[in-house]
Amino acid sequence: MALRRIGIVTAGGDAPGMNAAIRSVVRSALHNNLEIIGFERGYAGLIEGQARQLKARSVSGIINLGGTILKTRRCKEMRTPEGIEKAAETLKKYGIDGLVAIGGDGTFRGASELYRASGISMIGIPATIDNDVAGTDTTIGFDTAVNTALSAIDKIRDTATSHERIFVVEVMGRRRGFLALEVGLAGGAEIILIPEVRFDMDSVCEKIKSAREAGKTSEIVVMAEGAGDSREIARHIADETGYEVRLTVLGYIQRGGTPTALSRTLASQFGYHAVELLLTGEKKRMVGIKNGEICSVDLDYSWSAEKKIDLEKYRLAEILSE
Ligand code: F6P
């Protein structure tokens, strides 16, 4: 059956660059004479039928905006057969021939279920600051979040140096350490704590004491939120080393801000490729990038496989912080 009308939805945690992806999907679809229906507020809006037609001018002036003009929402109902069924009914009611779902692994799990319930083609575009989606080297928003966190850490290093303090800086990443590792290496952190590498507090404190003996007068500890309780870690270091320790939890500033060039170009390429996959009759894929090449993987792989973290990068950060 010829493709005539596609839907687009942003789901899960928002990420800088989602708007650039929406813009690319809309403009690529219009270039191919397709109609586009945007579903608002994630899968919750899809279930409730919150829809609006998108045209070329609907996506003017958004490539440089963080967030998502379609808004997003986490949706527990989409993990139930009833919710999936309601979403499938909405897609059929609007005559959607293919849906582009922009989000993270949870978004793609829902899209895979929706494909099985409706038979409607599903194409995923990976957009999350966590970069924890299998099948792609990087996700939309990751580079922006790395640079946001890095800018904060560079500022923190000024006051750490002035006061000769230790700063524990907690970054996002949900259950994974991709964001912490990238920011830690780029920021020259003395210690990086991530869920993927076991650590004990005695060796953490030992490393800090050795750093001081080697002449360092301040340290930055970058910690992934999934690696433990950062308040507890900061308190333990203060008690064990006797040095002044402060904690900064970067939180939601990592989710916003104008997307970097890389986040925008990746989003633009992913959006175009997603429409191409629908036009060629693909049923259930996620767009990705591998070694600089745009590619796609089976949608079920993207949420069911575990992405490996680069432990060589972790080791390099350790060596360079000595
Ligand atoms: O998945 C993106 C993310 O920012 C995670 O890094 C973080 O743990 C989570 O979302 C926070 O979820 P919420 O926005 O629902 O508080």
Structure description:
Strand 10 and strand 11 form a beta hairpin. The N and C termini lie far apart (61 Å). This protein has 11 helices and 11 strands. The strands form 2 sheets. Strands 3-2-1-4-5-10-11 form a 7-stranded mixed sheet, with helices on both faces. A 4-stranded parallel sheet has the order 7-8-6-9, sandwiched between helices. It folds into 2 domains: 5-141 and 259-304, Rossmann fold (3-Layer(aba) Sandwich), CATH 3.40.50.450; 145-255, Rossmann fold. Helix 2 packs across helix 3, helix 3 (81-93) packs across helix 4 and helix 7 packs across helix 8. The protein is α/β, with parallel strands linked by helices. Residues 13, 74, 104, 128-130, 172-174, 225, 255 line the site of 6-O-phosphono-beta-D-fructofuranose (F6P).
Write the layout of secondary structure elements.
Elements: E1 5-10, H1 18-31, E2 35-39, H2 42-48, E3 51-54, H3 81-93, E4 98-103, H4 105-118, E5 121-126, H5 142-163, E6 166-171, H6 178-187, E7 191-193, H7 201-213, E8 219-224, H8 230-241, E9 245-249, H9 261-279, E10 284-290, E11 293-298, H10 299-304, H11 311-320
Parallel strand pairs: 1-2, 1-4, 4-5, 5-10, 6-8, 6-9, 7-8
Antiparallel strand pairs: 2-3, 10-11
The chain binds 6-O-phosphono-beta-D-fructofuranose.
6-O-phosphono-beta-D-fructofuranose binds next to loops.
Summarize the structure.
This protein is of the alpha/beta class.
Report Rg. Answer: 22 Å
CATH architecture of the largest domain: 3-Layer(aba) Sandwich
Helix fraction, binned, reads 40-55%
What pattern of helices and strands is seen along the backbone? Answer: EHEHEHEHEHEHEHEHEHEEHH
Task: Name the quaternary structure.
Answer: single chain
Mean pLDDT: 97
| Derived structural class | alpha/beta
Here the CATH topology of the largest domain equals Rossmann fold
Low-confidence stretches: none
The bound ligands are:
6-O-phosphono-beta-D-fructofuranose
- Taken from the alpha-carbon principal axes, the silhouette is elongated
Specify the CATH class of the largest domain: Alpha Beta
Biggest sheet details = 7 strands, mixed
CA(first)-CA(last) distance:
61 Å
Strand adjacency order, main sheet: 3-2-1-4-5-10-11
Number of strands: 11
What is the total domain count? 2
Number of helices: 11
Strand content is: 15-25%
